[in-house]
Amino acid sequence: MNAVPNPRRFSFVGGDRGSWRVTRIVPYIGELLPDVARIDIVNGAVPAEGGWVLRGVTSNERYATRPEKTELAAKQVGLGRPTATHAALIPIRKNAAWWALTQDERRAIFEDKSRHVKTGLQYLPAVARRLHHCRDLETTEPFDFITLFDFAERDAAAFEQLLGELRATEEWKYVDREVDVRMVRDGA
Amino acid sequence: MNAVPNPRRFSFVGGDRGSWRVTRIVPYIGELLPDVARIDIVNGAVPAEGGWVLRGVTSNERYATRPEKTELAAKQVGLGRPTATHAALIPIRKNAAWWALTQDERRAIFEDKSRHVKTGLQYLPAVARRLHHCRDLETTEPFDFITLFDFAERDAAAFEQLLGELRATEEWKYVDREVDVRMVRDGA
Q1: Which of B32, B138, B144 to mutate: most A Cβ within 10 Å?
Q2: How far apart are alpha carbons B13 and B44 in whole angstroms?
Q3: B6 touches A at CB < 8 Å
Q4: String of b and e for B155-167 (b: at least 16 CB within 10 Å)?
Q5: Which of A26, B57, B159, B181 would you call most buried, defined as having the most Cβ atoms within 10 angstroms of its Cβ?
Q6: Mean pLDDT for each consecutive 10-residue tract of chain A (188 residues)?
Q7: Coil, strand or helix: which one is B154?
Q8: pTM reported for the whole predicted model
Q9: Which of 52-71 (B) contact A at CB < 8 A?
């Protein structure tokens, strides 16, 4: 049986290639990622060659309830709108205490206390997002999740507000590494 | 950054090697797996060479609540007890309808309707188990989950009963492939 790539796999390659020009890389919590000029976002695997590569796989939602999923589906938009010339790549890692929690405890912190879904809904459809999981790959990855956001320049302030609201939550007390990579699309 | 293997990764290699002698491989739902003489269970990656390889990663529990986890932790035992000379390797795949459900809907089917945890608890500590996730690896795997069970010969009938109870549940209506591999340890 030959290995067939998972079609939900994405690679985020920091280096000199790709259509996203990096404007800044800031460590928000913990160790930074080395500076690079560009990010190449590839739906698939890439050979490791200089720079850095983050890997993740999109998957089923882990916390949303049916009413939340219905509301999200009605409002959310896909990445890559022509107007979405600005993007943020935000990899995070959660600590051991988070992963020792049970599903009901994680859900209570994620939504009942931190209103993660409700907060995100307020910024739809301005801010599009795609979540990638990295904790259960066959390789040890430096982060547990990678979220890619894109938005129009006029929505950049709204995006900062969304990020500020999420970072102020109880859920974020469990984040032990977070890097904030900002990018602008070529031609923008 | 070099790729560091995930320490929670396991490979199940069907072929001519390993300390588990296969006694039968039966397809329970859907396509079978080819017959092999032995299964080698490796905590790590293996090169693909003849036979077949199933891969999975152990992870955090997705459904158990705190009271359930506490009860499981008090009763469960690890794989590999000297008396556990018999084993079953049961890979399953769930259908698209399952993965389209939300977390609360999956939990309701998994436990409220199917009593997955409560049923398993009745067979502890006789039957040890370890669950591996395969759906979100970087390769497309033929199954979503692989469960490895081991038990003493005297508990073989209890194991059949456990399996029968689980397969009769509402949850199992979402299983669209299941293969049942039975093994006996060398020297047993």
Answers
A1: B138
A2: 11
A3: yes
A4: bbeebeebbebbe
A5: B181
A6: 85 95 98 96 84 96 96 97 98 98 97 96 97 96 98 98 98 98 92
A7: helix
A8: 0.95
A9: 52-53, 55, 57, 59-66, 68-69
